[in-house]
Write a structure and sequence with these properties.
The protein is mostly helical. Helix content is 74%, strand content 0%. It contains 16 helices and no strands. Helix 8 runs antiparallel to helix 16.
């Protein structure tokens, strides 16, 4: 290799290094301090009986379940980054070096299985976050823990910053950021393969199938056909599919009715924490946050999908090009940066 090629390679590598400026070091430092404090706070809440599972069952049970849930959540989040980013890469290129990754890809990229995985995976995320919330979220925002002053309780317990940092940093952001750069290595294990099968089993159950109805409606409205790697459904497959869609619609309708009724009757945490907020405003905020979360989830999938494409393949429209230029410019930090901001926004919307 010539000196010019070596210099070009080193320059390319340097462009992907994070420059440790004083401001960067400061952000790293206070972020680690916040994470450590949040972990201590959540564990303290458990062992003082101030979380639901710790109070109803046992603090040690709450701690063990919380750890297992966070570990599984980290796999769910990181696996998505890998599976959505790998389709442009020929699986034969990593069949020998990453055999379990190849098994993941062989199952996920068969037909429309990737779409099925993504749907089941979203249900898993919400379920696991709900379990973590039962294990570590405070039942009383004024709980006497760590001798915290009231203003600190308001920030970390009432607003929920402690649980947001705890869930995001440990269960989501770390693995998302790493998996977005190490897609092959992250899912080269049987835990990832097991998670893939669980997600696809959830999708097969039909709980989330009303999403396919929305997909078909949007396809009809836009005049663009749905791209599929499978033959059109006929016969029993057609009946089974739309039967699950109807079942999912019934579940969604019932769930929405329960939520709206609870909001109107003031039987949600919104009414407990902020009693002066009108019920109509609570419903508006609920729908608004649902839209924001849905938008951010869709953007995440799209950004992972284009991450491995060549620059000239990433966008076919003006705003698509502008978005990709902003996302992938410089040393590539904007993609992980978006993941961090997106995840904090999503989890904050949950809590």
């Amino acid at each position: 290799m010539t000196d010019a090629e070596l210099n070009k390679q080193e320059s390319h590598a340097d462009s992907h290094d994070v420059k440790l400026t004083p401001f960067t070091i400061f952000r790293y430092t206070y972020s680690v301090i916040l994470l450590i404090f949040s972990i201590v706070l959540v564990v303290a809440l458990m062992f003082t009986g101030n979380t639901k599972l710790a109070a109803d069952v046992n603090p040690w049970v709450a701690l063990i379940v919380c750890i297992l849930a966070v570990v599984w959540l980290s796999m769910i989040e990181g696996q998505q980054a890998s599976l959505v980013g790998l389709p442009p890469i020929d699986p034969l290129l990593y069949k020998e070096t990453h055999p379990v990754t190849y098994l993941n890809a062989a199952n996920a990229f068969l037909g429309d299985n990737l779409d099925r995985y993504l749907m089941g995976r979203q249900f898993m995320v919400l379920l696991v976050v709900f379990i973590i919330n039962l294990c570590g979220a405070p039942t009383d925002a004024n709980a006497d823990v760590l001798n915290m002053p009231q203003w600190l309780k308001t920030i970390f317990l009432d607003v929920g910053l402690g649980m947001i940092i705890f869930t995001c940093q440990l269960g989501q952001l770390t693995t998302q950021v790493n998996a977005s750069h190490c897609m092959l290595d992250f899912i080269n294990n049987y835990f990832a393969l097991f998670t893939l099968y669980v997600a696809m089993t959830i999708e097969f159950s039909g709980i989330m199938h009303c999403s396919y109805l929305i997909q078909n409606i949007l396809s009809f409205a836009s005049g663009k056909p749905i791209q599929s790697n499978e033959e059109p459904r006929t016969g029993l497959k057609f009946v089974f599919f739309w039967g699950r869609v109807l079942m999912s619609l019934a579940i969604l309708g019932f769930s929405l009715a329960v939520i709206v009724a609870a909001l109107f009757q003031g039987k949600t945490m919104m009414a407990v924490k902020y009693p002066s907020v009108p019920n109509g405003v609570s419903i508006f905020l609920f729908l608004f946050l649902c839209c924001i979360v849905g938008l951010l989830e869709g953007m995440q999938i799209a950004f992972f999908a284009v991450a491995k494409l060549h620059d000239n393949e990433r966008a076919t429209s003006f705003f698509g090009r502008k978005t990709c230029d902003l996302l992938f410019k410089g040393n590539g930090q904007n993609l992980p940066g978006f993941m961090i901001g997106r995840q904090l926004t999503v989890v904050a919307s949950f809590f």
